[in-house]
Design goal:
336 residues, alpha/beta, Immunoglobulin-like, Rossmann fold, 2 domains, 6-stranded mixed beta sheet, 4-stranded antiparallel beta sheet, 7 helices, globular
């Protein structure tokens, strides 16, 4: 009897040991899968002809993806239409007081382009970032959020913080087609997020940015003087107002040019588009943006021999004559 008990004990311990090894092996495989998934690079791609008409119906084998000139396997491909996830960012800083109604009207106009399964969120930014509506398909809630947007109580334009938070936090874990519609004069004042830091994050992201620039500054109604509430913040600074009108005009023109350059850079690095408010037909512009988002291809690949934080060049080709491909031209893996 004692011998049988000993045999049974040895057998039971053996089973537990084997189960433990199996569990650890499975755990290790799970860790490896999770690790690989973090390296998936997803690239939104828009393909059109020379007349700017979108080319649909392409398959994965029609594309070639190159990383620093080295061909990559396409591991992820979406061509069918899927719901959009859009964040509309409204500049409600003191500098946009004279154009805020235009900005809000533009946001309301874009809401009309959404389909039933699309989701949108509304964010305003002035001296702080304000999420007025989380991602939702409720059109009335979105309209109320836009109409309730108002000029900030203090000086500040944390534009860079707003874009960074939207891409890095609000869109974290959101799959599929994502875009930011940025309605602003482009003049950052007081952000914690540096320009380079934001560009780096956009290189890691698969969110397209569509800035629409509203010119502000010289000739507008003067703003009430107020002490700047966060002098130690990093972002862009603000200088003393010059008394000479010509100097003020020149300073304002340089500020507008600098703002447009940065908005253009955000559009370029994400494969979005940059617009100015002078566009003749805003409705057609938003129709074009919505169509572009719906017609985009999503291509993903697992790059080999890459380092976190390092920038790699991307080149996408399609085997169609006269095809024009628009996609981000660089990526970096997020540092762990």
């Amino acid at each position: 009897m004692l011998k049988k008990i000993r045999c049974f004990t040895v057998f039971a311990l053996s089973i537990c040991f084997l189960f433990s090894l199996s569990f650890k092996a499975q755990e290790k495989r799970d860790e490896e899968v999770i690790k690989v998934d973090t390296n998936l690079v997803t690239v939104p791609v828009i393909v059109s002809d020379r007349r700017n008409r979108y080319i649909s119906g392409l398959k994965a084998e029609n594309f070639t993806v190159l990383k620093d000139g080295e061909r990559q396997n396409i591991d992820y491909f979406i061509a069918e239409e899927s719901p959009l996830n859009v964040a509309i960012l409204l500049d409600t800083s003191r500098s946009t007081e004279m154009v805020l109604d235009e900005i809000k009207d533009a946001a309301l106009e874009f809401i009309k382009q959404l389909k039933p399964n699309d989701r949108c969120m509304i964010v305003s930014f002035d001296w702080r970032v304000n999420v007025l509506s989380e991602l939702t398909g409720d059109r009335e809630k979105l309209k109320r959020a836009i109409k309730n947007a108002d000029i900030g109580e203090r000086f500040g334009t944390v534009l860079q913080d707003a874009v960074f938070q939207t891409v890095n936090k609000n869109f974290a874990g959101v799959k599929g087609r994502k875009a930011v519609i940025l309605l602003t004069d482009g003049k950052d004042f007081g952000s914690f997020t540096e320009r380079d830091e934001l560009v780096y994050r956009l290189e890691e992201s698969d969110t397209l940015v569509y800035p629409i620039f509203y010119e502000t500054g010289f000739g507008q109604r003067p703003m009430m003087r107020q002490r700047f509430p966060f002098p130690d913040r990093r972002g862009s600074g603000i200088g003393r107002r010059g008394r000479n009108p010509d100097q003020r005009r020149q300073r304002n023109e340089r500020a507008n040019e600098d703002a447009m350059d940065f908005l253009q850079e955000m559009a370029d690095v994400t494969a979005g588009r940059f617009y100015r408010k002078e566009i003749k037909d805003l409705t057609k512009t938003f129709e074009a943006i919505a169509e572009e988002l719906r017609m985009q291809y999503l291509i993903g690949f697992y790059p080999e021999n890459v380092e976190s934080g390092k920038v790699y060049q991307i080149k996408l080709r399609v085997d169609r004559d006269e095809a024009v491909v628009r996609a981000k031209n660089a990526f970096r893996l997020k540092e762990k």
